[in-house]
Amino acid sequence: MKGLFITFEGPDGAGKTTQINMLKEYLTSKGYDVVLTREPGGTAIGEKIRNVILDVENKEMDDICEALLYAASRAQHVKQLILPSIDQGKIVICDRFVESSIVYQGYARGLGEDKIEAINNIATRGLVPDVVFLLMLTPEEGIKRKKKSGELDRLEMEKLEFHNRVYEGYNRLKERRKNIFEIDATLDIDDIHNRIVRVVESLLREE
Ligand SMILES: Nc1ncnc2c1ncn2[C@@H]1O[C@H](COP(=O)(O)OP(=O)(O)O)[C@@H](O)[C@H]1O
Ligand SMILES: Cc1cn([C@H]2C[C@H](O)[C@@H](COP(=O)(O)OP(=O)(O)O)O2)c(=O)[nH]c1=O
């Protein structure tokens, strides 16, 4: 079998980590070889880049610098981990991918969605996810959830206006993409999981 590439998107605190872990457990129990990874990060070099991006000390970081660092982490990730794993027939589940850059850097930061897409076409070498699960949650609800579960990182500390733009950015993006499967993140955890499993099972049947 050729592998699958599944990504999770959504505003901070939407429940991506929760659902990714549940999906991994489900697929592993069915005997599939699953690779769990995240962005920024996923490789030793990528994790170092992640630390620079998310460091609360880096208040002076330029927006374009930030966008290029995300893309740099992605280029290493695609080459070193994602493409080889797909070639080996594995199911790769990734916490955030290009869509995060288009929404956070392209739309919310205002750098331009087309420009960010162009940078990322180089970074991904044209790799597109088989499905993007978009967990949608209003910014107010998302931040509330995150605060309950611990520390906020640099981007999570951004003002509410930024999170509103992220929410709006995902709403814009989903209209343009056929591979985005949107789910209401306020649903019950098991309900969301079951919806995700149904889509993944249908993709596996197509293999
Ligand atoms: N469907 C849900 N309903 C209510 N709370 C949830 C749901 N999914 C996740 N949570 C909780 O919300 C918080 C953020 O979830 P998490 O999976 O870490 O989100 P993300 O990875 O998208 O930031 C956690 O405390 C988690 O337990
Ligand atoms: C991958 C990616 C993430 N981000 C942001 C979204 C998150 O706020 C942060 C990643 O932190 P992370 O801890 O992974 O957040 P979450 O658990 O909410 O997914 O980086 C971008 O702005 N652009 C990107 O390309």
TrEMBL record:
Residues the record lists as binding ATP: G10, P11, D12, G13, A14, G15, K16, T17
EC number in record: 2.7.4.9
Coiled-coil regions, chain positions: none
GO biological process: dTDP biosynthetic process; dTTP biosynthetic process; dUDP biosynthetic process
GO molecular function (one): dTMP kinase activity
Keywords: ATP-binding, Kinase, Nucleotide biosynthesis, Nucleotide-binding, Transferase
Catalytic activity: dTMP + ATP = dTDP + ADP
Gene for this chain: tmk
Function (record text): Phosphorylation of dTMP to form dTDP in both de novo and salvage pathways of dTTP synthesis.
Protein name stated in the entry: Thymidylate kinase
CDD domains the UniProt entry points to: TMPK
Enzyme class: transferase
Family: Belongs to the thymidylate kinase family.
